Amino acid sequence: MASLAQTVAGTQFAASAATPATYNAAGFAALTFTDGDTCEIVNIGDIGMEWNTSESNTICTDPIVTKKSRAKMIPFMLTLNFVKGDALQEMLATAFASKTAVLSLEITDPNGTDKQWCTAQVSKLPKKFGGGEDFIT
Q1: What is the mean pLDDT of the chain?
Q2: Whole-angstrom Cα distance, residue 55 to residue 63?
Q3: Which of 3, 8, 41, 66 is the most buried (most CB within 10 A)?
Q4: What is the pTM of this model?
């Protein structure tokens, strides 16, 4: 039986310096997104939500009661080959330099139609150096 799973090849990542008027598909679709001038994205990483938990740790109950409390976006690491002057990378660098900048992100699946959106701040922007055969990411 053939696998129905698809690879990540062909996935597109784009960002907008604006935030949506409404946090739904229509709000994000109204934004203008910038993708990279060069396709140098190596890995987008895990994107999704996770639950914070709250615990009740009273001395008269056993066991400790843990419940889901609030959901939040998990931090994700975008890895790309560094290209000076790339429009997307310049936008990410500008957002990193600001303490308050919030970007809107758009990830388009390889089929070209399924999209995921979120807003994010750039909190890390390292350049990774490796060995002689590695790219600067």
Answers
A1: 86
A2: 11
A3: 41
A4: 0.75
